[in-house]
């Protein structure tokens, strides 16, 4: 069973693999926080600031984003259906969240197979028109890996819990994960869609020893492009909104002026004819 709860943060939670999160809820006083469960074979409950936030959170599930006030927040992960957060199996840990930023907290295995939590900062800066950002994160109990695209390494020697990013033209990339220095995939290949103005994050998670390595993906809209430039985050949406309002106002004024001119012409014609 999955429940959506409030933390006193007025935040909604949606869970899915291949989750798409618009980077527009953040503000000068809040941050976006998503949570990825990447520990195989363990269903958990997640508490934030002492409140049950994710109930029966299953492996391979991504939840969020939570729109949370900037500052420090304490996260504790307990066994499923625990009475409270007093006996965590992982944590408690403190996440420091900066206003106007986006984060994904990942519960995962370290390189030795021990449960841990890593809080990643998501790069939501604008990308050039027609391009998107691909970030690959190694959160698996596995040695260093290479990320392959079209059979060639585009990221080499990536270790747990690190990440690497590329800005690429919008396209579909066939990606695979191989042990560092090799080309035989241990995960994939899988098609990864790079979208214009989108941060696509691919997580390699699971355990090489247990043979359950897998991929999870997350998409965050970071910018809207137009012929005149690139808008990003809340500023981009606000600018687009203001432009739309301005266009509507100008268009309305033009229609009103045209109607007034037409009315004056009609009145003059009637006076002449009379």
Automatic annotation (TrEMBL):
It comes from the Bacteria. The chain crosses the membrane at residues 247-267. The keyword tRNA processing does not apply. Residues 31-147 form the DUF4397 domain. Keywords: Membrane, Signal, Transmembrane, Transmembrane helix. Pfam families: DUF4397. Residues 1-25 form the signal peptide. This is DUF4397 domain-containing protein. It comes from Microbacterium rhizomatis. The lineage of its organism: Bacteria, Bacillati, Actinomycetota, Actinomycetes, Micrococcales.
């Amino acid at each position: 069973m999955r429940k959506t709860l409030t933390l006193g943060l007025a935040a909604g939670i949606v869970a899915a693999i291949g989750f798409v999160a618009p980077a527009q809820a953040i503000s000068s006083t809040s941050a976006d926080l998503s949570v990825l469960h990447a520990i195989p074979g363990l269903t958990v409950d997640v508490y934030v600031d002492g409140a049950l936030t994710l109930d029966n959170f299953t492996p391979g599930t991504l939840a969020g984003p939570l729109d949370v006030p900037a500052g420090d927040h304490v996260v504790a992960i307990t066994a499923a259906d625990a009475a409270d957060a007093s006996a965590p199996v992982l944590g408690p840990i403190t996440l420091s969240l900066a206003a106007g930023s986006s984060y994904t907290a990942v519960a995962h295995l370290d390189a030795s197979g021990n449960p841990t939590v890593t809080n990643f900062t998501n790069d939501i800066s604008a990308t050039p028109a027609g391009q998107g950002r691909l970030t690959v994160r190694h959160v698996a109990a596995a040695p260093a890996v290479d990320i392959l695209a079209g059979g060639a390494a585009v990221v080499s020697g990536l270790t747990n819990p690190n990440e690497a990013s590329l800005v690429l033209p919008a396209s579909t990339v066939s990606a695979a994960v191989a042990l560092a220095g090799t080309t035989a995939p241990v995960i994939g290949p899988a098609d990864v869609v790079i979208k214009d103005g989108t941060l696509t994050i691919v997580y390699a998670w699971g355990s090489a020893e247990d043979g359950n390595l897998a991929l999870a993906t997350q998409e965050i809209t970071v910018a809207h492009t137009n012929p005149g430039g690139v808008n990003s985050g809340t500023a981009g949406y606000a600018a687009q909104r203001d432009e739309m309002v301005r266009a509507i106002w100008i268009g309305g004024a033009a229609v009103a002026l045209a109607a007034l001119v037409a009315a004056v012409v009609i009145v003059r014609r009637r006076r002449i004819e009379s």
